[in-house]
Design brief:
This is Nuclease. Keywords: Endonuclease, Hydrolase, Nuclease, Signal. One of its GO terms (molecular function) is hydrolase activity. There is one protein chain. This protein has helices at about 1-20, 65-75, 105-110, 125-135, 150-160; strands at about 25-35, 35-40, 45-50, 55, 80-85, 95-100, 100-105, 115. It is an alpha+beta fold. The chain has a single domain (about 10-160), classed as OB fold (Dihydrolipoamide Acetyltransferase, E2P). A hairpin with a 2-residue loop joins strand 6 (about 95-100) and strand 7 (about 100-105). The longest helix has 19 residues, at about 1-20. It is globular, with a radius of gyration of 16 Å.
């Protein structure tokens, strides 16, 4: 009961915070993978956007292509709203992406196509969504032991594949 109340409160606060800060509208013109897009801003300025608080499988990782396809299905060639929080170390814009009022970052976790990125997590709602996707064995959670992308990247570096 208390967990449900907390969850509802967090959903409300997340939705409220999305509407209380300035956002930027853009057209999604590219999908790099399940957590990176290219957007055209006003004046045709192109920006790279990293969906914050989530980490999707790498392109060559199991479910990497499916994750990219899912993100494409949700927002490719669509006008979205970005709630920008800053930049990452690669100079990509960090943002929560909204389409028709839906938090797309959260939708990726709910569908089992991305992890809640614990290292950069600010809203526990992503963990709840991940737990639910795991319990339902959705997407990457159909795999018996999926490897988080940050560990996959370490293996790639170490073994050169």
């Amino acid at each position: 009961m208390i967990k449900n109340i907390l969850l509802i409160s967090l959903v409300f606060l997340t939705a409220l915070s999305a509407h209380s800060s300035p956002s930027n509208d853009c057209l999604v013109v590219g999908i790099s993978d399940g957590d990176s897009i290219t957007c055209l801003m006003i004046g045709n300025k192109s920006i790279k956007v990293r969906l914050e608080e989530i980490d999707a499988p790498e392109k060559n990782q199991p479910f990497g292509k499916k994750s990219k396809q899912q993100l494409s299905k949700l927002i490719y060639k669509r006008r979205v709203s970005l709630k920008i929080s800053g930049q990452d170390r690669y100079k990509r814009t960090l943002a929560t992406v909204y389409y028709n009022g839906k938090n797309i970052n959260l939708e990726m976790v709910k569908s089992g196509m991305a992890w809640a990125y614990n290292q950069y997590l600010h809203h526990p709602i992503y963990l709840y969504a991940q737990e639910k996707a795991q319990a339902q064995r959705l997407g990457l959670w159909a795999d018996r032991s999926p490897i988080p992308p940050h560990e996959w990247r370490k293996q790639e570096k170490k073994y050169g594949f």
